[in-house]
Write a structure and sequence with these properties.
The protein is an alpha/beta fold. The protein has one domain: 3-Layer(aba) Sandwich (Rossmann fold), CATH 3.40.50.11900. Helices cover 54% and strands 9% of the residues. The strands form 2 sheets. It has a 4-stranded parallel β-sheet, sandwiched between helices. It has a 4-stranded parallel β-sheet with strand order 6-5-7-8, with helices on both faces. β3 (151-155), α8 (160-173) and β4 form a beta-alpha-beta unit. α1 (2-16) packs antiparallel against α2 (26-45) and α16 crosses α17 (399-416). The N and C termini lie far apart (45 Å). The mean pLDDT is 95. Bound molecules: iron/sulfur cluster. Iron/sulfur cluster binds next to α8. Iron/sulfur cluster is lined by residues 131, 133, 158-159, 161-162, 309, 397-398, 401.
Length: 451
């Protein structure tokens, strides 16, 4: 009966997605149809019956449809990176497209590798110097397979690799661009790295962004709409904070990296009621299971911290860890969205919340300054979440993380006694270090050092 209801919903989505999505939108259409197939397969495998498509998956379908519709209807699309909340873009009536949904989303089916090879052929960078999280965009653009937005926005953090590829994309497409410099020092008074100029610096850049958006969209910035959007963002942040607390429970109530859905909600839909719905759903699921004393992994034996992105081309890696080692990976660095709710009672407070959310975003907060930011983050994670070991897949192109992870993991090991594994691989290219080698390395570490 319930399966029938999901089937009805899926049929409706299938119908909505029919037709030509337009130049550069074919791969997004493929992704949309892939999600429909995945939802159907997962519903068939579920032990518990579902009476509707789960909110995170529905959000992905709605987002892709929105992008297609925006292009058809002439509404403007603004491309932005994976470490930025789109609340200001929603305030201005834009349709945000998180670029990595495209270039990293394709890695889950290895389609990105075809475009990586084209990027190589035209001579744009190579694995060791520029990150493959963005490089497929260039090859795909050359093939007329990449979505070309109306506007482009990015930040100077988390890496020079991302900034360079976005600049190259802007250069070859001529799309109007705005970017923001993310400062190095801390905004918290309690930090030894505190600098009183940080907040003003961020606020002035964000406030400069608004007239640029007004000019590009030919639309006035509406204060009420902005406040409403910031209230929605902060409602979602409240749910995410609750969820992050619930994950401290032993056993961890949800399967590996369930928090990734929170990051998706904040990065794709932050500032909308849909993100509120998704984050509430994820929080409620965890809370219900804590109440019932249920673990995401049966007979949980190991709790893993994964303070880096996961291996996107191997979607079964965490499942394998759960089945082989009864190990739950509590979160990855993106899914560990660390921004708490702020006071948004006045307009100025809303601007502050926007600035703080940008400074502390997943990966930005830990990667934008001295290595101590990352070290403290890792040690707190280990202690608060009762972590048994740390695993970090690392690629050379991620130079800042490459430089700090070995140091941070060594300090964390000395201070907490928790073993750490840092190993080389490209999370976006299965041909660099294949899954079998990755699993062999992790097995060896868990069997010989952790267990
Ligand atoms: S993995 Fe590292 S180099 Fe690649 S986009 Fe993320 S931060 Fe940048």
């Amino acid at each position: 009966m319930n399966e029938l209801r999901i089937e009805e919903e899926l049929k409706e989505y299938k119908k909505l997605g029919r037709g030509n999505w337009g130049e550069g939108f074919g791969l997004l259409k493929g992704m949309y149809n892939g999600f429909i197939t995945r939802i159907r397969d997962e519903a068939a495998e579920m032990e518990e019956e579902q009476d509707e498509i789960m909110p995170p998956m529905k959000m992905l379908l709605n987002l892709l449809l929105d992008l297609r519709n925006a292009r058809r209807e002439g509404r403007k699309i603004c491309m932005h990176p994976f470490n930025y909340g789109p609340e200001l873009l929603y305030t201005m009536g834009l349709v945000p497209l998180m670029q990595e949904l495209f270039s990293v989303g394709l890695a889950t089916t290895h389609i990105n590798e075809f475009y990586l090879d084209i990027t190589n052929k035209i001579g744009y960078g190579d694995n060791p110097t520029l990150c493959n999280a963005q490089r497929p965009l260039i090859g795909a653009y050359m093939q007329k397979a990449a979505p070309v937005p109306d506007l482009l926005f990015f930040l100077s953090t988390p890496c020079n690799s991302l900034s360079i590829t976005y600049q190259v994309f802007q250069h070859i497409t001529n799309v109007p661009l705005f970017n923001i410099d993310i400062p190095y020092w801390a905004h918290e008074h309690s930090s030894e790295f505190y600098d009183e100029r940080i907040m003003d610096y961020m606020l002035s850049q964000l406030k400069n962004f608004i007239p640029w958006l007004e000019k590009q969209t030919n639309r006035k910035f509406e204060i009420e709409k902005f406040q409403e959007t910031m209230n929605l963002v902060n409602q979602s942040r409240e749910y995410v904070s609750d969820f992050n607390e619930l994950l401290k429970t032993v056993p961890c109530p949800v399967p590996s990296i369930a928090g990734f859905g929170n990051w998706l909600a904040m990065t794709l839909r932050g500032g909308t009621s849909e993100a509120v719905k998704v984050t509430k759903y994820i929080r409620d699921q965890a809370a219900e299971r804590v109440k019932e004393g249920l673990g995401g992994v049966e007979d949980e034996k190991l709790r893993i911290a994964w303070p880096y992105t996961h291996v996107f081309f191997d979607q079964e890696l965490f499942k394998w860890l759960e089945e082989e080692f009864q190990a739950v990976t509590i979160m990855d660095i993106l899914g560990f969205y660390p921004v708490g709710p702020h006071d948004t009672s006045t307009l100025e407070k809303c601007y502050e919340s926007l600035a703080l959310g940008t400074l502390d975003y997943s990966m930005i907060g830990t990667c934008r300054g001295p290595v101590e930011y990352f070290v403290d983050f890792l040690i707190n994670w280990i202690n608060e979440y009762k972590i048994d070991c740390v695993i970090i897949p690392m690629q050379f192109a991620c130079k800042h993380a490459y430089a700090m992870t070995t140091l941070a993991s060594e300090i964390a090991r000395q201070e907490t006694g928790v073993p750490t594994l840092v190993f080389g691989c490209d999370p976006y290219d299965s041909r660099e270090v294949p899954s079998e080698t990755i699993r062999a390395k992790i097995s060896e570490f868990l069997n010989q050092i952790v267990l």
